Amino acid sequence: MAGWNKNLIFYFLIALALFVAGVLSIWAKSSLLSLVMLVLGIALLVSGLIQMIRFFFPKEHHQGDFNALLRALLSIGASILLIWYQGVPQWLMVVLFGGYMLVYATACMVQWWLYRRDRVRGRLLLFWTALVLYVVGGIFLLSPSLTMDDMLILLGIYFILLGFTYFRDGFDSLSSKTRNRVTRKIRITLPAIICAIIPAKTLNDINAYLKENDEFEEDDHSESAEPDLEVYVHVTNSGFGLLGHVDIGFEGTIISYGNYDTESYRLNSVIGDGVFFLSPIESTIENYLSVEKNNLFVYGLRLNEEQKAQIRQAINRIVAKGIRWHTKIERENGFDHPQDYQEDYPSRLVCKTGAQFYKFADGRFKTYFALGSNCVLLADSIIGRLGTDVLSMRGLITPGTYLDYLDKEYHKKGSMVITRQFYPCNEDGKKLGVLESMRRG
């Protein structure tokens, strides 16, 4: 009882804060922003002066810390801008806002162009969305000093809508009955730029936890509580993999979609041929952990028989569209010297797990696009049949969006998401344990 009350209070407090911020942003506009900057500037000035005093008057037997001096100077410099030159940070905020909208518009336009080339239906909305965003973003960039109030009004509306989403999540937590279906409805998510760093942030938090807690909690849920479908969110310790990757595990098989054909890479692997593979869960997870050095967040969903049939149908529809694609090690029959193919991920996976790779002959997954038709979109095309609403509002889609959504569902009482597990990467390929898992009746 205390667990869900804690989550309920959290959702309502966040919703209330967003409502207040949204209303004040619309009502007070620039005057509110000026006040916030003034308060923040005073706080930074006080902090900088304190650090400056500590540097020049260190405690006995301790020398001044030059890093502290640098932080003090930066704090004082930022406070000067926020208190006496507010026009500079305000101008920068509008420029960044306009630039973000242009990036958003470009992602929509690229996705529209790819859909047009692949003759995917229903692409017109993306085109018009991109045009509107280009116009609005251009206006903000061309006249930042005249559009500050307009930006704050848009942000205010967004805060209010996001607050409604948290408020609804709080009421969903009140339900004591297990839901066999999540109603698909409009959902406002965090900005894509924030969602993109959620996997890395979550991994850092867990690593910090592990530094103070050496033991893992074992997964002790009973056989009757075993999930029927699992969602795997991969996160590496460094590099591009910090943004995450999403796979689906169902009835002993993993289905994963991505830009796996290196020969089709364009724009530094942002675009390429869409490729998916099917492989056994156990050996693939073992390979993820020990060979690919991926950390795994695993969320388990409970399904009824009707939902299982829907998932099978969705996966079978994807497989039916696939054309068998052979990796380098298969094309060159190099299984007797696999060490020569260690740099090629598909070949490694085939050698380690017996995975089979496929390309799409047509459809929206024929071409992979990191900011659109990516691994998350394919996962949602399968799980979306259950009513998940994470992608109802289209935009820049990242694995962090799905990780945030699944984590919220896990905390809801009666949710279909019944388990949450974490497996850190390791050298020997054995599952070290579960950081956290929970069984719900």
TrEMBL record:
The chain crosses the membrane at residues 7-27, 33-56, 68-85, 91-113, 125-146, 152-171. InterPro entries: DUF308_memb. Keywords: Membrane, Transmembrane, Transmembrane helix. It comes from the Bacteria. This is DUF308 domain-containing protein. It comes from Amedibacillus dolichus.
